[in-house]
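re: that chain from earlier
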Amino acid sequence: MIPLLETALAFALIMLTASLFVSAVVQVIMNVGRYRSCVLIHMLRSLMHGFRTFHRDPEIVDPVTGRPAPDALERSAECEMRFVHEVLADPVLHARSAKIAAGTDPEQLALQVEYIDADDLITIAAGASVPIDAEGRERLLPGRWVSSGQGGAVVTKRYATLEQFSAYVRRWFPTLEGTASQTFKQRARRLTLLVSMMVVVLFNFDGFQVLARLHQNGAARGQVVAQADTVTATAVRLGEGTSAQRAPDELRDATLQDFGLEMQKTATLLDEAKLGLGWQESWIVERFCAYRGESLADRPTWLQLLRDTLFWLAGLAFSCGMLSLGAPFWVTTFSQLIQMRNEVRHRKQQESASGARATSGALALPARERAVARPS
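^ sequence. v structure.
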């Protein structure tokens, strides 16, 4: 039981290490590609387009049929994106350093914002709205936000009041926010799968071969499990631990900068354990070399080589699927395996202690019987 648990522990730790590398790469790509900002921009544009459609704006809804015009999205793109850029370019949403870096371009400033809530959106819209009565009780959204400006003229829309917009935002913002969050998670999962495939092929990560070598080599299992504290601490600093172990953002950013060094140390450890990772010690490469060699003694047939190739491809697919589960999954799995191993060891110690007491009692019994049988 213990060797199987040790094998599972070592494999889970290796998968956690590789998953942390994949997560770091995915995070860098998302930061460079502004994934969160792009999703937020799309969400706000959908919000404004839905607001205009709900009030049957004649520019995007056919007044006869009541259905959106075929080219409604194209015609409304300019004004709706203007709304998005002006909202997200509001100075309240930006730190001074980010604003200086992005200059005064609203499109660049909009890419610096990754989140906005409903109250902030309404407050920013209120600051840009225009009063239409003497007392300022009724306010209209800027015409450039709801008018395509066809013919060079921006038309003021009577339906686009701040009160109507606020009511629409409070009603539909949670739904759009949830949809945007789901969209972001789907993109993250797809990117994680793509990066996992690249890592598996780049490092020749054959999961079946790794499992086999871990099960056969107790020393390799020990070398891998010995790094458990280092890997789990790195997972916590990268924000991939449990919710109670999440690290502050500044510590997480600092860890990303040093993550390459830690991964290099881990790669050296795995290489010393000789688990078949990489192309130099790949068993499939050895099989192809043997097939092309001159020696007929160890030369596999083409059917054997085909079988080995299919098994190797299955191992790569297995590794890719395991990596795509993400680092949080392997953090949880590794913790559960640790608890299981400790429980098994505790029970074995109890059984050993009980057996020792039973043995000592059995040895002491004849002595007591002799004492009772001795004549006075």
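The CA atoms of residues 30 and 36 lie 8 Å apart.
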